[in-house]
Amino acid sequence: MAARSAPSCHLRLEWVYGYRGHQCRNNLYYTAAKEIVYFVAGVGVVYSPREHRQKFYRGHSDDIISLALHPERVLVATGQVGKEPYICIWDSYTVQTISVLKDVHTHGVACLAFDLDGQRLVSVGLDSKNAVCIWDWKRGKMLSMAPGHTDRIFDISWDLYQPNKLVSCGVKHIKFWSLCGNALTPKRGVFGKTGDLQTILCLACARDELTYSGALNGDIYVWKGINLIRTIQGAHTAGIFSMNACEEGFATGGRDGCIRLWDLTFKPITVIDLREADQGYKGLSVRSVCWRGDHILVGTQDSEIFEIVVHERNKPFLIMQGHCDGELWALAVHPTKPLAVTGSDDRSVRIWSLVDHALIARCNMEEPIRSAAVNVDGIHLALGMKDGSFTVLRVRDMTEVVHIKDRKEAIHELKYSPDGTYLAVGCNDSSVDIYGVAQRYKKFGECVGSLSFITHLDWSSDSRYLQTNDGNGKRLFYRMPGGKEVANKEEIKGVHWASWTCVSGLEVNGIWPKYSDVNDINSVDGNYIGQVLVTADDYGIIKLFRYPCLRKGAKFKKYIGHSAHVTNVRWSHDYQWVISIGGADHSVFQWKFIPERKLKDALHIAPQESLADSNSDESDSDLSDVPELDSEIEQETQLTYRRQVYKEDLPQLKEQYKEKQKSGTSKRRERAPGNSIRLHFVHGYRGYDCRSNLFYTQTGEIVYHVAAVGVVYNRQQNTQRFYLGHDDDILCLAMHPVRELVATGQVGRDPSIHIWDTETTKPLSILKGYHQYGVCAVDFSADGRRLASAGLDDGHTVVLWDWKRGERLSATRGSKDKIFVVKMNPYVPDKLMTAGIKHIKFWRRAGGGLIGRKGYVGTLGKNETMMSAVYGWTEEMAFSGTSTGDVCIWRDIFLVKTVKAHDGPVFSMHALEKGFVTGGKDGVVALWDDSFERCLKTYAIKRAALAPGSKGLLLEDNPSIRAISLGHGHILVGTKNGEILEVDKSGPITLLVQGHMEGEVWGLATHPYLPICATVSDDKTLRIWDLSPSHCMLAVRKLKKGGRCCCFSPDGKALAVGLNDGSFLMANADTLEDLVSFHHRKDIISDIRFSPGSGKYLAVASHDSFIDIYNVMSSKRVGICKGATSYITHVDWDIRGKLLQVNTGAKEQLFFEAPRGKKQTVPSGEAEKIVWASWTSVLGLCCEGIWPVIGEVMDITASCLTSDKTVLATGDDLGFVKLFRYPAKGKFGKFKRYVAHSTHVTNVRWTYDDSMLVTLGGADMSLMVWTNEMEGYREKRPCDSEESDIDSEEDGGYDSDVTRENEISYTIRALSTNIRPMFGIKPHLQQKEPSTDERQGVVRPPVSRAPPQPEKLQTNNVGKKKRPIEDLVLELVFGYRGRDCRNNVHYLNDGDDIIYHTASVGILHNVATGTQSFYQEHNDDILCLTVNQHPKFINIVATGQVIQQTCQPQHRLCTSGTP
Q1: What is residue 1324's DSSP assignment?
Q2: Rounded to two decimals, what is the model's pTM?
Q3: Long-range CB contacts (< 8 A, 24+ apart) of 695-701?
Q4: pLDDT at 624
Q5: How confident is the model at residue 660 (pLDDT cuts 50, 70, 90)?
Q6: CA-based, 20 to 30 A from 40: which of 63, 105, 627, 1193?
Q7: Looking at residue 671, what DSSP letter applies?
Q8: How far apart (Å, rounded) are the C-alpha atoms in residues 1213 and 1196?
């Protein structure tokens, strides 16, 4: 049992030692509360020097590398590294997330800066283009993005004195940006003769268009506009890493260890040299400086933070220290005092006080340190070095006792024996040496059993044995002190170990995830008293397990904060704290251990919320979970909804196949048929894998979904209206609070959510582009303005939408397990909850992200699978239904209590004005009071309670309830079996809608002279349906096996049914009672047909490639048709009943003589002349045209010909129902196409009088009835698409002009070298960037290489005799672009002017004077032009051009006032 649940104790981060100085700049500031904000590893730290207290922001999942402070100095923005890095904006008081900005940068976020009023944030990425991105951070929305530079950008800043201007700098460049609309346009700074072109590391903007920047050589460059006007030489003697502007002036800090203060005009005030100060040292390098009033904060390369008071500037105060270069591996704790010792590759050993949170001693060694140990009496400290030596120091004064070098490779682990007499030293050369402490560390023994480097050691309590782990994961035992290996494991059995730090061994089996490398876990430490184990791994995670931890995949609590690998972890001597150290992040974390008994008092402290779960109970194995999943839920979690081919893929597939098919399409093809069909009624409701998808509308109609159809059912008139906008399975449905609009989400590669009106069945909004594979849950907010959705991708993305504007507001990964329900908080539109497999999470919106917290179960239970959820009467209260039949009651994120509600899962839950209603797998509907204290009433769904007016028959008592809704005095219930029932409050139940249950439906037959049809399905039922106005199921019979085909006899009295086990039966068509049954085959019976006329013979086709012919009168088998190479798919009789036409899975068309079954060869020309009693075949010349271009990836499953032999209906694998003219000769015939089924259509049949077409959906289990509308019967409907897969030439050519224009390619123009590289700046104002040719050294005709002169002449040119280059001004343009453009001439100013375009110029031509003025911001051909007609925007014109951009022809749109 021990490992099956996570330990109930908890760790809380109490202190972080260190500061990230390496590879970061400008990351240290004072907040408004005079606290200091900085970061280390993956944690944002807010440190109060007054109280000596730290607060932590832990919303990041990897190293933080950039930080910016909001102008009001309360909010902080931090950016991280990673594959999908994000930016968090958080509050420095509460350390809670305010906004998350994501989905734009890759690799990392290098720089951040807020603008003057703090409304916008700019970020720079670490991608190859160093993208610059501007955000409206409150809304989490990107406003603009542009490639930053080809080389690294080190700093970016808004110009605080000019709106919409920014400056960025980096490797050998500085750029001045302007933001106009959503376009960011850069101009490169001109270094000219004033200074060398070099790397600029930092910058600050000042008044009068001045910018100050710090260069790599220690100079300060002063810019006006984009020109370098002067340099302040030797400001520092080496690179200037940081520049900070404040009210008093500027502070700069550099690699030379100096801080310089400057006034507002950049005249020097003072210098502070930290290398000369008390705590200074040679090589100190300043990375960050912040000046506020009389305090200066300085961050150094070596992870220190100094605070300097200006009037005592020679006494800097050291407020934070940490390890620096190289990795940090050595950690030891003092045996009697609250002290920790760490040693690192920076060659320093440091002793930290865990009580005072301070460094109390430091000593520099000769070599990098890799391991440490303190003797039991706390006097000696042993340090293992990277060069194979070890040194022993006195803890008291850090003086050396001995230095011994017996090995050449690093000493990775050493430990003193519990009695203090020996020291065991483990080396990377796979040996362990034993030294005697009292004998001045004389060598006593050697352990040489390992074949790999030694990773961990533990002594037994009596100091007689040593256990080791090595790099191969082997665990070995040795006798001490000689070092002889213990071969007999029995000897070890009773040994008690003094400490447990080994990662392999029975006691720690459970710490290993199912699939992990033996070196993933770096360190372990057991706490025998608290029975917990702490581990540190390569993924930056600290985990708490129960101890001993025997079973693989044990549950744990996990804590994040370290960014990369955590190298070591130890309990303090009194088990009050856990100390962990990060390898690459150089940081030391101190965690407070909160035992179980104290947890109850700490409940009011909410777990730290974060985007990556921290403090979560998790496990890598679901096997260790106690409750088995309910069978229905188990089935549902297995469904993936992935398709081989999505309908979105069709255009691409067609293109691919078109090339191959070019030759074959010369035949003239038939038109599409004149008839069309219209969806009339659908039998079925999707209950088997969906929940809460059934509602009353405002007018009392019922809305639900089946297959790809949204259905609005009028129960008074028994009619249906349809929303047919989806093209694949609908999986979820939500009702708008006004009850007139519905949102539905579907399956798809890029699945869409449709919001549509139930009255008009027209879409109001379609949302796409964020989910993958499918949308499994949707919900509207209480005000109806927002919509939340959850997807089926691997991360189960949760998205919040402003659906009217089609705008995504926020998104996040929801859970690694499937989500079943998403619910918006009715009181706070920014909050929502999701629930699903083993989790419930409570979310709040933060800008473009959502911050989630897992529901905290505490001692009240375990993490159950949640099937339904609903909010209660305050924003804090929530209720969820579990897979075991309980209702959980939540306050905020805490479980308050559970109530037993049903036997089996609670699938649906609904809040009423006073109270709740729930429905479960047990088939019971329960009404509850408003606090789930009392169950007020229950309704059992039973056949006995069915009211007379029901539209069908209930198949079983207590069907599993999947959806419940209340309204109009009734309870509406949807069941797993595809039934919709209306329960009257007084008890009677009316069945309204019914379909087949789970399993595919293939068998379909229409009656020879009545409007009824029969279906048979894998759900083991045979059903008879009425197709006339009553639309209901007339009869049903349960079968012993599922079936795939059925057929009425010609007189309509008998019904033959083929079953999946190879048997078939004949039943009375009225009573469905057996007449006779046979069992001659082992495989599925795939088609069954009575011969025409008297129905004397019955042909029975099976999947084992035979057709048996039976004489119906004598009930004997009279013939067998052999010779098919694959399973039989379709069988048809000729009109005389003498010949069978057969299709097989190998696409053969075969003919057999009846009744003997002899195979016949019929030439294709003759086959056409034969008159067939029915045509359901899909092969042959007559229906060659029904196969699409992509016939290889898509099968046609069924066809059926009308009795007048003019229209052929087909059903295919992609869910399309198509109508063709018959015969459909020639390839790729034209057709009309209808979408309503989601996946394969398994069967289609016309009724006896051709007035209706009945179609079956295989996996969607629906039976659809379509009315046949004759030619000219009525207006065209939107779903009638006359199409074909290929347009061949003779289908109507274009006019020659149209053809020519259609073939123009603008790509060639756009891809040739751009003569005028422009980004919206006029040529004479712009700096010339080297063209592609120049970069590659191509010589072009000579043009002046001198940089164009700015308007005001540069001062240093005065003495020279050069004349400035004259400017050319465009005066007149002849020409107008009419050859390939339309509607591009307009009157302006009441007819005084004409506006048009030619080449890349927009022209305003004055009719009276003949003069022209020009808009010249485009840099390539303009292709279109329009004028804004709105009175508010007079003379605003938009023009669109061709543009070159990374080899993709793209189009750019400019909007401007007239030139």
Answers
A1: G
A2: 0.79
A3: 695/733, 695/735, 695/739, 695/742, 695/965, 695/967, 695/972, 696/739, 696/965, 696/966, 696/967, 696/968, 696/972, 697/735, 697/739, 697/740, 697/758, 698/738, 698/739, 698/740, 699/759, 700/967, 700/968, 701/758
A4: 39
A5: low
A6: 105
A7: P
A8: 6
Bridge pairing between strands 1241-1246 and 1252-1257: antiparallel
- Which residue is listed with tokens 């659908």? 682
Tokens of 352: 């930290």
**Dihedral pair phi/psi, residue 1312, rounded to 5°:** -70, 160
Q: Which two tokens stand for residue 1448?
A: 């993709």
In contact, 587 and 41? CB cutoff 8 Å: yes
Which tens digits make up the pLDDT trace of 331-367? Answer: 999 999 999 999 999 899 999 999 999 999 999 999 9
User: Going edge to edge, which strands form the sheet with 1097-1102?
Assistant: 1085-1090, 1097-1102, 1107-1111, 1116-1121
**1164 phi/psi in degrees, rounded to 5:** -60, -35
Q: Are 786 and 809 in contact (CB under 8 A)?
A: yes
Specify the pLDDT at position 1048. 93
Whole-number pLDDT of residue 1271: 72
Structure-derived torsion over alpha carbons of residues 706, 707, 712, 717, reported in degrees to the nearest 10: -80
Maximum distance among all Cα pairs of the chain, rounded to whole angstroms: 122
Average pLDDT over the chain, rounded to an integer? 85
Place of tokens 């990775």: 412
Helices within 649-796 (DSSP H only): 650-661
| CB-based contacts of 1410, cutoff 8 Å, min separation 6 | none
Distance in angstroms (rounded) separating the CA atoms of residues 265 and 274: 25
Residue 799, pLDDT > 90, answer yes
Q: Both ends of the chain: CA-CA distance in Å?
A: 80
Please name every residue paired with 1413 in a beta bridge, in sequence order, or none if there are none: 1404
pLDDT tens, residue by residue, 997-1045: 888 899 999 999 999 999 999 989 999 999 887 888 888 889 999 999 9
- How many angstroms separate the CA atoms of 100 and 121, rounded? 12
Q: Read off the pLDDT band of 1336 (50, 70, 90).
A: low
DSSP run (H or E) holding 201: strand 200-205
Q: By C-alpha distance, which of 738, 732, 739, 737 is closest to 700?
A: 739
Token pair 């022809």 is at which residue? 1449
User: 1275 pLDDT exceeds 70?
Assistant: no
Report the C-alpha gap between 339 and 479 in whole angstroms: 31
Query: Are the CB atoms for 183 and 212 separated by under 8 Å?
Result: no
Query: Where do we find the tokens 């009835």?
Result: 1265
Give the pLDDT band (50/70/90) at residue 229: very high
Among candidate residues 667, 644, 643, 645, the one with its CA nearest the CA of residue 654: 645
Query: What number is the average pLDDT over the span 706-729?
Result: 90
Beta strands in 93-138 (DSSP E): 97-101, 109-114, 120-125, 132-136
CA distance 890 to 867: 15
Count, in order, helices (H) and strands (E) of the chain: 7, 113
pLDDT of residue 602: 45
Give the span between the Cα atoms of 349 and 171, in whole angstroms.
Answer: 36
Q: Give yes or no for a contact between 912 and 926, defined as CB atoms under 8 angstroms apart.
A: no
User: What stretch of H or E contains 1303?
Assistant: helix 1296-1303
Confidence of residue 1195 (pLDDT cuts 50, 70, 90): confident
Burial of 312 (0-12, 13-18, 19+ CB in 10 A): exposed
Integer Cα distance of 511 and 515 in angstroms: 12
Express each pLDDT in 286-295 by its tens digit: 999 999 988 9
Q: Is the dihedral of CA 481, 487, 488, 493 positive or negative?
A: positive
Give the three-class secondary structure for 46. Answer: strand
Per-residue pLDDT band at 1200 (split at 50, 70, 90): very high
What CA–CA distance (Å, rounded) separates 460 from 1287? 84
